[in-house]
């Protein structure tokens, strides 16, 4: 057994393995200081909710409270491993500043109230608005961190109960483009690949995906492959020198906002060199000639100029993906949060389609999610889509959903695409929406252009309801605050990036009067008296397991089929990948084997959109284009971002995450080890720009865009010259300002712009024109940026930066293969084929 | 042969469509997607105008390649005015009206392109046919965008 400082070594000890071999088990564990396993009363099954990887874990309970965590050796996702956020983040559950009682705004202050009063106020205001202004006056803004049962209930309630089209999640900021890109290429949402593709791939390409920080355990799997025999080659596309870039065979650091040009360049080379699987293209796709025509002009010379990357690196990258025998690609925010997010992510799909790299071991595609249950937000319809990946513009799908819910089809809003989060902000701004019910998300820190968002959400005429576990920035300005339970305090299921469904069971009681989100929704539905068309209760379930049962029926026959899953089946063993039905009782490892898609006009979740204008295609157009339901090769030309560097704002600002934090730090900021590893905002600058601005490591600098300014200490990193990076995690809940800057402005979204990809409606966080200025020389305080990550220091000053260490508090156990590992229930890596 | 005349009319109509899109963008600058997309799509028409002017000489017409456009300062002032005045006003019928104008103008332009494509085939002028094959699909996408935006906005505007 090893004792490892998992802040200093986020990926832990290597357990090398070769292609086609089983990833060795390594069981990671962290218990409260002074406790040993013998002190633990019981272990309760769950999975991680501080990222999207879905690591199976057990929560340690002693005397009715959480005291630690241990990876589940038998889980297919992590084979026992945990990342730093899993190992330490659970401590926030027991934090003393949890919300324990409903709060209501009176005279500019939040005062405690009872649940009964709170719910009556909520229901009263809702009914008033519905009577006065109709369903278009209210909206729901949920999250990617609740459970499936909660999203499904929310979706039924909002769509069929209230009849509003204004339903979205913060998944709009993280995973909307993944869903949109999958719909464009394959007719339907649904992750093609599996994590086990890492075990087989000979080339792994990461497009705008700093996996080392966002999905640490999946990156650990790749590190173990890289340390083993016949390691895969790695392509990294990222303007920062991330841990992925450092491990890469080829690293392309394109100018922000040029991903479509880059992808078209790679496709150009793949086609020009004859690396196309012509049989696959002919049998399983439509649109190849248009793609070929579109990428023709994107020669390496042209692309090298647009993206400002060396031509020979482009050629090398194209050779890697063009000649791979087993190519695994992953895509995340570097692509998604751009003005052409969907268009660029779709080109990665195209790469796999033209190379026939789908549905076989190592030939996989992962359009990643950022949040633990983002997949459920999407499939249950809490992002506004219709439940079960049904198509809002297909009358038969709407009628089928109406049958499941026992309502009239016209009770389900489907006259237009669902209203996305940014459009809801606009409707709140213009006064046509008067109520927003926010659950488990913090728009006052995470949405772009915070000055505007603050002015929208603090309007007198807007009734803002916030359901959360802490008094977030957003909760502080709410009219009504509903205290919720969190993972470990409630039971439910959720589904990770590669479709693995986990059960998370209640381990401890929520604090005070905090209630599970599902209970809040069920109470609301009961008080509202929602009825089906026969006068029975619309929401007729009463607990997580009965909610799961109705969801299963809703998913029957759809691509995300859950019908053969039960809580009992998910108990004890590994998570299971959907579809899981009679035909695939152990789940399904990979989608699209043999080039079979869910793209037939009668099956497809979406008829697609224009990648540039975002206008939805009509059913007739789709039927004509793709009558046989093949995959669609959708081409797009590169267009520059709307906000380009100028004389006044000569640099480009990129915002993003760091390994130790999740979102707005509501949970990770309350775990000591994670907080200390990255305690405050910093400004990441290249050596070149530091030189021209007279900046040294640790200096205090100011970043300004047309929207605002942010101050932070400088970290000179390996980022691309001309580009600045700010982590977006830092808001004001632990600052004097509370919910807004009070002198010290540090939220990256003070600077970002209100603009989005017209196709996925995902806001742009990767290209804002900015300028940089030195405010003060370093007083010896080091930049709070971690040294273990993409923000690692470079250059002459690097040696003097103290390395990120967690010390004694971060020491965690690693049970290694050389130890006595349990052998009886090792992971089964995937479902039946 | 009246191809010169047809090109002149198309040049005028594409210029007007571009100006109308710019107008839409400025008037509804607080509606961010309308603001950005309308400007982007005006750029498509400006490009069509340039291409039309380029080929028109061969048909005896001297057309301005840069007919779309205006003083940047005046535009910025108008945008700021729109931003300052309209942010919290209810979504008026104005948005629907302006989108309707763009949609019908784009439809008209589409007919122009169809006529020209027919003529180009009749006289087997491949350059002219290439021009229509480049521009007409983009024109249809402009119309489809305006139509989609109308459908998306109508409910909120009319029932709220």
UniProtKB/TrEMBL annotation, chain A:
Molecular function GO labels: 4 iron, 4 sulfur cluster binding; metal ion binding; molybdopterin cofactor binding; oxidoreductase activity
List compositional bias (Low complexity) regions by residue number. Answer: 777-804
Keywords carried by this UniProt record: 4Fe-4S, Iron, Iron-sulfur, Metal-binding, Molybdenum, Nitrate assimilation, Oxidoreductase
Classify the source by domain of life: Bacteria
Q: List residues of the 4Fe-4S Mo/W bis-MGD-type domain.
A: 41-97
Question: SUPFAM superfamilies, from UniProt?
Answer: ADC-like, Formate dehydrogenase/DMSO reductase, domains 1-3
Q: Which cofactor does it need?
A: [4Fe-4S] cluster; Mo-bis(molybdopterin guanine dinucleotide)
Gene3D superfamilies listed in its UniProt record? 2.40.40.20, 3.40.50.740, ADC-like domains, Dimethylsulfoxide Reductase, domain 2
Region feature (Disordered): 1-20, 777-833
Its GO biological process terms?
nitrate assimilation
Which PROSITE patterns does this UniProt record tie to the protein?
4FE4S_MOW_BIS_MGD (PS51669), MOLYBDOPTERIN_PROK_2 (PS00490)
**Which family, according to UniProt?**
Belongs to the prokaryotic molybdopterin-containing oxidoreductase family. NasA/NapA/NarB subfamily.
Q: Which PANTHER family match?
A: NADH-QUINONE OXIDOREDUCTASE SUBUNIT G, RESPIRATORY NITRATE REDUCTASE
UniProt protein name = Molydopterin dinucleotide binding domain-containing protein
TrEMBL record, chain B:
Domain of life assignment: Bacteria
Protein's name according to its UniProt entry: Uncharacterized protein
Tell me the organism. Cellulomonas marina
């Amino acid at each position: 057994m090893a004792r490892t400082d998992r802040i200093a070594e986020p990926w832990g000890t290597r357990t090398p393995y070769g292609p086609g071999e089983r990833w060795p088990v390594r069981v990671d564990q962290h218990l409260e200081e002074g406790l040993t396993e013998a002190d633990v009363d019981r272990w309760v099954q769950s999975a991680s909710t501080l990222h999207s990887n879905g690591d199976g874990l057990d929560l340690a309970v002693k005397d009715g409270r959480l005291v630690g965590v241990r990876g589940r050796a038998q889980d297919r996702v992590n084979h026992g491993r945990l990342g730093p956020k899993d190992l330490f983040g659970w401590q926030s559950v027991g934090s003393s500043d949890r919300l324990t009682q409903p709060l209501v705004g009176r005279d500019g202050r939040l005062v405690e109230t009872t649940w009964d009063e709170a719910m009556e106020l909520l229901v009263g205001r809702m009914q008033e608005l519905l009577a006065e202004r109709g369903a278009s006056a209210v909206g729901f803004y949920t999250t990617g961190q609740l459970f499936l049962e909660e999203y499904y209930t929310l979706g039924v309630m909002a769509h069929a109960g209230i009849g509003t089209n204004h339903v979205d999640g913060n998944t709009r900021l993280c995973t909307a483009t993944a869903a949109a890109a999958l719909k464009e290429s394959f007719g339907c949402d649904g992750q093609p690949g599996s994590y086990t593709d890492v075990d087989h791939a000979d080339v792994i390409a990461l497009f705008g995906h700093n996996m080392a920080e966002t999905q640490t355990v999946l990156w650990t799997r790749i590190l173990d492959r890289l340390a083993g025999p016949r390691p895969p080659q790695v392509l990294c596309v990222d303007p920062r020198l991330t841990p992925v870039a450092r491990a890469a065979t080829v690293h392309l650091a394109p100018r922000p906002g040029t991903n479509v040009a880059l992808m078209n360049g790679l496709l150009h080379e793949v086609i020009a060199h004859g690396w196309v699987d012509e049989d696959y293209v002919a049998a399983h796709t439509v649109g190849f000639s248009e793609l070929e025509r579109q990428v023709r002009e994107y020669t390496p010379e042209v692309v090298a100029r647009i993206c400002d990357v060396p031509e020979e690196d482009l050629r090398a990258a194209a050779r890697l993906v063009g000649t791979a025998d087993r190519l695994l690609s992953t895509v995340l925010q570097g692509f998604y949060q751009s003005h052409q997010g969907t268009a660029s992510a779709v080109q990665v799909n195209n790469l796999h389609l033209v190379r026939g790299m789908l549905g076989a071991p190592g030939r996989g595609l992962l359009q990643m999610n950022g949040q633990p249950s983002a997949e459920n937000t999407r499939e249950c319809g809490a992002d506004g889509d219709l439940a079960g990946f049904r198509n809002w513009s297909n009358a038969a799908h709407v009628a089928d959903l109406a049958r499941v819910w026992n309502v009239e089809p016209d009770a389900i809003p489907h006259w237009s695409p669902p209203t996305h989060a940014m459009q809801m902000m606009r409707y709140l701004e213009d006064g046509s929406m008067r109520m927003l019910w926010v659950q488990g998300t913090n728009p006052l820190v995470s949405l772009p252009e915070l000055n505007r968002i603050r002015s929208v959400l603090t309007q007198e005429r807007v009734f803002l309801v916030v359901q959360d576990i802490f008094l977030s920035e957003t909760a502080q300005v709410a009219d009504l605050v509903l205290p919720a339970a969190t993972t470990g305090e409630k039971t439910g299921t959720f589904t990770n990036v590669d479709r693995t469904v986990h059960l998370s069971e209640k381990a401890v009681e929520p604090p005070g009067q905090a209630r599970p989100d599902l209970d809040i929704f069920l109470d609301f539905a009961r008080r509202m008296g929602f009825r089906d068309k026969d006068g029975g209760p619309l929401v007729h379930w009463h607990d997580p397991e009965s909610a799961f049962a109705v969801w299963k029926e809703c998913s029957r026959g759809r691509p995300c089929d859950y019908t053969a899953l039960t809580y009992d089946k998910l108990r004890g063993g590994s998570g299971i990948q959907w579809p899981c039905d009679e035909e695939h009782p152990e789940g399904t490892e990979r989608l699209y084997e043999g080039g079979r898609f869910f793209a037939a006009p009668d099956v497809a979740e979406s008829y697609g959109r224009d990648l540039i204008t975002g206008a939805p295609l009509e059913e007739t157009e789709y039927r004509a284009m793709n009558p046989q339901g093949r995959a669609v090769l959708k081409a797009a030309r590169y267009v520059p971002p709307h906000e380009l560097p100028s004389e006044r704002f000569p640099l480009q600002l990129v915002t993003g995450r760091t390994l130790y934090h999740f979102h707005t730090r509501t949970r990770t900021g309350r775990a000591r080890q994670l907080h200390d590893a990255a305690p405050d905002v910093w400004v990441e600058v290249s050596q070149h720009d530091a030189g021209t601005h007279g900046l040294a490591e640790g200096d205090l600098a100011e970043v300004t865009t047309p929207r605002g300014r942010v101050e932070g200490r400088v970290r000179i990193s390996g980022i691309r010259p001309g580009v600045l990076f700010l982590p977006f995690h830092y808001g004001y809940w632990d600052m004097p300002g509370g919910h807004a800057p009070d002198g010290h402005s540090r939220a990256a979204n003070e600077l970002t712009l209100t603009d989005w990809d017209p196709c996925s409606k995902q806001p742009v966080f990767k290209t804002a024109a900015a300028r940089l200025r030195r405010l003060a020389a370093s007083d010896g305080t080091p930049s709070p940026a971690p040294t273990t990550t993409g923000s690692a220091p470079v250059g002459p000053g690097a040696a003097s930066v103290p390395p990120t260490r967690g010390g004694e508090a971060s020491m965690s156990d690693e049970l290694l293969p050389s130890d006595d590992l349990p052998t009886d229930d090792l992971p089964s890596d995937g479902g039946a084929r | 042969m009246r191809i010169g005349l047809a090109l002149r009319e198309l040049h005028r109509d594409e210029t007007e469509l571009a100006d109308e899109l710019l107008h839409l963008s400025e008037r509804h600058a607080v509606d961010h997607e309308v603001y950005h997309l309308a400007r982007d799509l005006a750029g498509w028409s400006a490009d069509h105008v340039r291409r039309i002017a380029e080929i028109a000489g061969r048909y005896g017409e001297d057309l301005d390649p840069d007919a779309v456009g205006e003083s940047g300062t005046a535009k910025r002032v108008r945008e700021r005015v729109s931003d300052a005045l309209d942010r919290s006003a209810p979504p008026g019928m104005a948005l629907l009206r302006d989108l309707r104008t763009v949609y019908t103008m784009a439809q008209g332009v589409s007919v122009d392109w169809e006529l020209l494509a027919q003529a180009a085939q009749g006289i087997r002028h491949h350059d002219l046919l290439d021009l229509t094959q480049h521009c007409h699909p983009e024109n249809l996408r402009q119309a489809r965008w305006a139509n989609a935006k109308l459908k998306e906005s109508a409910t909120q505007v009319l029932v709220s």
